[in-house]
Design goal:
Blueprint: E1 4-5, H1 6-13, H2 17-26, E2 36-37, H3 39-52, E3 62-74, E4 80-92, H4 96-167, H5 173-264, H6 271-274, E5 289-292, E6 295-297, H7 298-305, H8 309-318, E7 328-330, H9 331-340, E8 344-347, H10 352-359, E9 367-368, E10 372-377, H11 383-391, E11 408-414, E12 417-423, H12 431-439, E13 443-449, H13 456-468, E14 472-477, H14 486-494, E15 508-511, H15 520-534, E16 537-538, E17 545-554, E18 558-567, E19 570-571, E20 575-578, E21 581-584, E22 587-589, E23 598-599, E24 603-608, E25 619-623, H16 626-662, E26 666-674, H17 677-689, E27 695-704, H18 709-718, E28 721-725, H19 731-740, E29 744-747, H20 750-764, E30 768-785, E31 789-799, E32 801-802, E33 806-811, E34 814-826, E35 829-830, E36 833-834, E37 839-844, E38 855-864
Helix pairs in contact: 4-5, 7-8, 12-13, 18-19
Length: about 850
Amino acid sequence: MADVSIEKLASDIGTSVDRLVSQFSDAGIKKAVGENVTEDEKRKLLDHLSKQHGGSNGEPKKMTLQRKTTSTLSLGKSKEVKVEVRKKRTYVKRTDIEEQRQAEEEAKRREEEARLKREAEEKAAEEARKAAEEKARKAEEARKAAEEDKARRAEKAKQEAAARAEAESELSEEELKEQEEARQEEERLRKQQEEEAQRKLEEDAKKAAEEARKLAEENERRWKEEEERRKKEEAEEVHMHSNRYAQEAEDIEDMQVERSSRRRKKPNKKASESLKQGFNKPAAPVERVVKLGATITVGELASRLAIKVQEVIKAMMKMGEMATINQVLDQDTAVLVVEEMGHKYELVNDNALEDELLAGSGAGDKTTRAPVVTIMGHVDHGKTSLLDYIRRAKVAAGEAGGITQHIGAYSVDTDNGKITFLDTPGHAAFTAMRARGATATDIVVLVVAADDGVMPQTKEAVQHSRAAGVPLIIAVNKMDKEAADPDRVKTELSQLEVISEEWGGEHQFVNVSAKTGMGVDELLEAISLQAEVLDLKATPTGPGRGIVVESRLDKGRGPIASVLVQEGEVKSGDILLCGEEYGRVRAMRDENGQDVKVAGPSTPVEILGLSGVPVAGEDALVVQDERKAREVAGKRHQKKRELKLARQQKAKLENMFANMEAGDVSELNVVLKADVQGSVEAISESLIKLSTSEVKVNIVGSGVGGITETDASLAAASSAIVVGFNVRADATARRVIEAEEIDLRYYSVIYDLIDEVKAAMSGMLAPEFKQEIMGLAEVRDVFKSPKLGAIAGCMVTEGTVKRSNPIRVLRENVVIYEGELESLRRFKDDVQEVRNGMECGIGVKNYNDVKVGDQIEVFQVVEVKREI
């Protein structure tokens, strides 16, 4: 490379020309401004600078750091003194001898610790071995003594038996009795001696084990004390160095202040005292106790730990979690992060206000209440029809497709008193609704068709009742049919451990017919009997408390919640808190639409006046303070949102790499609207279960009520189909749907909805291709053509050979070439196909190695339609 000027070199390395000239001068090279610099001179300068900054050839043994600060001291109204503080700290590198000496001391200390530990272990092992040997020796001696004693007793018994045989005729009956008593007394004393010897051996062994354990604990304590002593010495050394540096800084400050004061002739004796810093470096890291609720953001966690946010994010990255400052962490993740960073945590209850509201409910004297009975069973087994007969109403006629799709709550006055019935759906999709019905009830009536027997949802109802700990009454329905077989029902249910009282079990079986009314009175008597056994009681007065059985959005009346009151009273005008929703009760109606002023225990009512549609299954509670109710509802909503965000983020991070490896997954986006909350739950769960590894159902939006413009816009933005279950789109929504050409579907039966979505998902599956063999030709002779190359004279042995299809050449049933036909002739004519049993000439494109005996296989690729 050519020489460069001083100015060019200075601009390249980013320094001034004067400084570069002085550096050359220090390196022993005389240079002036305007002169050129050679490569050798550059190398010499680089070596010189490397030695100065601790390069490989000249490592510095000492390093000095200087810092200068200027401050102003006020000495009165108009008197000020400028103080210049220069701090100088020198670090001296240890020599190899010092490092070697320190390593030797550390090695000696470790050897001493290992020797002490080894000696203690050997001593403990030796003592344990001696104790074991002593125990074995004593056991052997005891065994030998027992054997000798046994032999002696046997000999003695033999002699006594001989003597007794000789003198038996001479002894009287009384003397024989005395001899027998003496023998029994001797046997008892012998057993007592053996037990005493065995007990003594066990005590000796236990004592030896206890001594060995105490010795091991003493060694452990001694090692722990030695470790604490060593750590204490290290901590004292840290404090000593810290104080030494602080003292050096104070000395330098005193000198600077004294010099400045002498120069200004205004001494200030207190200056050095005010400039002292009394900070001592902590010998151990600070351990903090962090209070954690259900959720916490990364920034808030860093604030509580009194560290930078970057440190928390770094710790989470080490744990495999990518996080941001505003990310919400769930409680489990926050606990792991706190433990990872060496701090402690304390889990706190965020529901203090809720607990305060709940504290006053349920107090007071309890009286007998009506039982709450849930009708459960398989779809189309006659649950609603049975309830119709009891209520003398026709509920089933109004259900779409004749199946129940909502939870119905009804209060019925019978000859045996008032009974509240809950009618649950029997279709497989309504699992959550059946579970909710089982937890809110006192007695479950399981309806089983006598001609159909136990079905999947029958088994599921038994499981729900057992999980909720609710007694079961079996109603064998459809007894009016010729095919009715109640014994078959009993047999099948006995396999589920549901055994009738007739067979020695504890479950009541009642044969009924919802059509003719047979056995209905017996069923009501069985319910009353079970209720008497349960002795159901509740507080009849005071603030009401219950459970939301169902909820929906009515276009004219707003949010409506079906609430089953369990404790106390709910009155018009009360403030009701239902999960995330609250409001003043504007009106209450029973199942017949009649206004109700007061609802007591075991009474189902429809309540109007809530702020929104509550989630079915939430607790409903009457509170006194509307402000507190609003605050609790807001907190619950915020907590639910944070938990949802935390779960989403966690799922996103956990599945990120799995999704990348799996490739693109087809998604069917759905916007779902239904008439009641239970239907939304059931349909969502059923659709999500249809997802496979290739096609996934993604419910981008769901809710209760009619299809609005917002739903249509959401579907347009996410390329989703809109599904309405027992609801319709309003005029504005229809205009958006038509303009955006969105797929809108209405359903009133859940079977049809699931089947059509399944069909749509099947169409999104990647197609499968299968090869079908069309024909097979055997090569009988090979001809050479100057234009076409090798021509195979063939006989078609199977199927049809077509010119347009791909082919394979087989030799001894092994594929040796795959391609296509160049020519297909019959005699001298070009043909498109040759059938079985005919001869033809075949030219294979780009392949001339056809031999006699080869087979030419003609095939086609067929697309196979796939289904989920």
